[in-house]
Amino acid sequence: MKHQRLFGWLFVALLLAILLSPIVYWLTGIGQSAQELTAEIGRQPDGTLASSPKAEALHRLTLPMRIEVMIVLPLLLLSFQFSGGAVALRCWLEQRVPAPKLNLQFPGNRSETQQQNSGQTLSPPIDNPTLGHSGSDQPQIRSWQQRISWYDLLIIVLFMLLFEIGLALLYLPSTFYRGFILAHQFGLSTQTFPAWVNDWFKNLLIGLVTGGVLWTGFFLLMRLLPRRWPIPGGIALLAVGFVFTLLAPLLVTPLFYEVRPLDDAGLTARIVALTERAGMLVDEVYVIDASAKTTRANAYFTGFGDARRIVLYDTLVSGYAPDQIEVVLAHEMGHWYYRHVFWSILVTGIVGWVGLFGLRWLLNRTWRPLGLRGPADVAGLPYIMAIVAIATILSLPVQNGISRLAERQADQFALVTSQQPAAFIELFEQFAEQNLSLIDTSAWEKYFFYTHPPIADRIQMAETWSEEE
Fold first, then answer.
1. Which of 151, 200, 311, 356 could form a disulfide with 230, with the two C-beta atoms 3.0–4.6 Å apart?
2. Rounded to whole angstroms, what are the CA distances from 2 to 7, 54, 82, 446?
3. 348: Cβ–Cβ under 8 A, 6 or more apart, which residues?
């Protein structure tokens, strides 16, 4: 009990730190003085490009924020778990959500709460069900059905919803400060307050729906297949990755942006010529109304197979020269050519699949010290989320290194296909000013945080390619 009190105090301290951190960043005065700074990039005495003062100031604020989330969130989840808060939340739900009087659960099954109330012996632990006989089909079916009830599923869903909503509300001040206040101070946002709130609620609802489905499915697999759940879990992980990549542009993006086909005839003609030189086909290039929310310019590639699409920000289309846009399109076609999205989903899914076996091993050895009823107890959700967060953080250098390699391949493809190194260099110089991006950064930050090569590296690649040609 003593260690639970210590973790309880740590949990309270972390709560206060998260809630008060926006005030600390505000008191630095960096954001308030941002309007006085220039966004123009400069040159050092040796002639190399230098980041703009405004980009440097933004970096001084956002880097500590990123590190804070990486460190504090796993500690928050673990302190909540070790303090007994997660188990208390599950017990609180079970006390306030009465077990159904009617037999609404799977046939042949009674929930743990009902068995306790009736004085009957509890079913075997959820981590090691051993009911049924191999010589009879019906008893074996019942042993599967006795591992979880509709009431258990309800508790799992409610626990997940309450926990996710609690996290979202806890981080709401930080999210608002960074996404609205700071973005407006640095001139990166054009969004009104009501529009920002609307987007926040949309993100919350999407997270609750997707999280509810995924976590409920996760605990359901653990209950039904206590020894083999990582096998179907890995298959589901891969399937979800591919399905979400296909459906997100069709279902999620239109919730936040107006999406339309590119209607610039001159630019379309350039695209056709570009794809012909690359030996590729492009059915459609899309534009989103990013200017309603941000001043940043960007583009991205998504999908694979026949569902591939290139999406341009309208800020890019309206604010950049046709040669520069052609370079951007060639870069996105490079992702298409090398099948980067497909391989990213596949590799991430396989690594995650292996991770599920490691998670099973860990849960089987830690559920008792955590005070859980078994590895598949939903009260272990914060612990599982913390383990996933820590594993993700530790793997960031590898993940980002692979991502930077893919971006360099796409850059090389853009240079070869467009044959416009000067436009390539001008593009990234303008990106640096408009998006307040650093020209270069320290080695540790690049390897740990950067999914793209720094702008200095990309410009150097274009200069080297131009000299070789």
1. 356
2. 9, 49, 11, 42
3. 241
CA distances from residue 330 to 21, 327, 421 in whole angstroms, order as listed? 42, 5, 12
Task: Yes or no: say if 166 and 159 are a contact pair by the CB < 8 Å rule.
Answer: no
What's the sign of the alpha-carbon dihedral 114, 119, 124, 125? positive
Which 8-state DSSP code applies to residue 132? S
CA distance 168 to 419: 47
Backbone torsions φ then ψ of 289, nearest 5 degrees: -85, 65
Kindly list the distances between the CA atom of residue 413 and the CA atoms of 230, 330, 333, 338, 439, in Å, as whole numbers in the listed order: 38, 7, 8, 9, 22
Residue corresponding to tokens 């794809």: 275
pTM > 0.70: yes
Q: What are phi and psi of 120, to 5 degrees?
A: -80, 165
Contacts of 395 (CB under 8 A, 6+ apart): 351
Residue 381 has pLDDT above 70, yes or no: yes
Measuring CA to CA, which residue among 295, 79, 260, 106 is closest to residue 187?
295
Tokens for 364? 């089987």
| Beta-strand relationship, 285-288 and 309-313 | parallel
Give the integer Cα–Cα distance in Å for 176 and 169.
11
Nearest to 301 by CA among 196, 414, 211, 398: 414
Give residue for tokens 């996933």.
388
Most confident of the following: 44-53, 92-101, 387-396: 387-396
Q: d(Cα 448, Cα 157) in Å, to the nearest integer?
A: 35
Q: Which of 304, 284, 301 is nearest to 241 (CA)?
A: 304
Secondary structure class of 302 (helix, strand, coil): strand
Question: CA 236, CA 230: separation in Å to the nearest integer?
Answer: 10
Each residue's pLDDT tens digit, 318-360: 999 999 999 998 998 899 889 898 999 999 999 999 999 999 9
Long-range CB contacts (within 8 A, 24+) of 11-20: 11/76, 11/79, 11/80, 11/83, 11/85, 14/72, 14/75, 14/76, 14/79, 15/76, 15/170, 17/72, 18/72, 18/76, 18/170, 18/171, 18/174, 19/170, 19/173
Residue identified by tokens 């079916």 is: 141
Three-state secondary-structure class, residue 65? helix
- Under a CB-based contact definition with an 8 Å cutoff, are residues 211 and 160 in contact? yes
Alpha helix (H) residue ranges in 97-250: 112-118, 137-145, 150-170, 172-176, 183-185, 193-224, 230-247
Nearest to 403 by CA among 447, 371, 440: 447
